[in-house]
Design goal:
Elements: E1 7-10, H1 12-18, H2 22-37, E2 41-42, E3 47-49, E4 55-64, E5 69-78, H3 82-85, E6 91-97, E7 104-109, H4 111-129, E8 136-140, H5 144-156, E9 161-165, H6 169-180, E10 188-190, H7 194-198, E11 203-206, E12 227-230, H8 239-243, E13 247-250, H9 253-261, E14 273-274, H10 275-280, E15 293-296, H11 301-318, E16 322-324
Parallel strand pairs: 1-7, 8-9, 8-11, 9-10, 11-12, 12-15, 13-14, 13-15
Antiparallel strand pairs: 1-16, 2-4, 3-4, 4-5, 5-6, 6-7
Helix pairs in contact: 1-11, 2-4, 2-11, 4-5, 4-11
Amino acid sequence: MLEDGAIRYLSADDVEASLPPLDQRLALAEEALVALARGDAEMPPKIGIHPRPDAFLHAMPAHLRGRELAGIKWVAGGYPDNVRLGLPAINALIILNDPGTGVPTAVLDGSRITSVRTAAVSGVAISRFAPRDASRVALIGAGVQGSSHLPVIVGLLPGAELCIYDQHPERSERLAERARGLDGAGRARTALTAREAVDGADVVLTMASFGPVRQVMTEEWLTPGALVVPVDFATYCSAEVARSAALFLVDDDPQFRYYRELGHFDGYPDPAETLGQAIVRGASRQDRPPGRIVSTALGIGLADVVFGDAVVRRAIADGRGQRLPR
């Protein structure tokens, strides 16, 4: 995607205006997951630094063979005080390179891509493993990720009741109000506790801020056939929930094992397979195994690269962004 040697820069507004629609986002997420499952990509586990105990900065390089995409995301997350300071909890940049020459081709704000690709991966898990008659959804965490998951929930589970919990009640209510305004949404309400939100839910999505309290959601919280999609490592979902699950999936096996060695998934079992491997074998809601399913998302840099490429292509077609000389 070279443009006379120039680098295309996309601001946050450019990225927002160039995002693909929901069905394409789900397709892009599946493409990344399947490429990892089939060995059609190179993606080492994240490397990172930790300037403070409750925050991180990660480097996430990836290469997709076949379509020949390469790039890296540099992402900062955690930082719980950012909410009080009026700053986003997640900040990121994505750099795309020409795999044939190594020349950088694009630099774009990656914060919005981080949230939409994460929601799309959750959407893939929902589309494949939510109970067939799912009618109640619990959402733990009403921040950026919670907001990005709303269109996915409504699009894939139209009419489902949504119960939201956040440690900041005003954020829960704002997100519930937004949910009520979406076409196809069912009833949306808030809960005073996380356990109240989860009670009776068919699909449980956890995306709370990382913190010292971990693995608090035990089996007693959950219905026997629920789909649990943790986006916050083991902040909420306890190891016993993963151990007793009929199927325990992750988005990337090497990354999961790496983080388990670092103590982020104490007591967790080996995953049965990756979400991409489940897609390859043809898993669907119609033949989901009985019992609880856990699909943990650690975040894959390949999805950032695939989404970044799609956003840049659409931005170029629409004349958005700046061409920066070298």
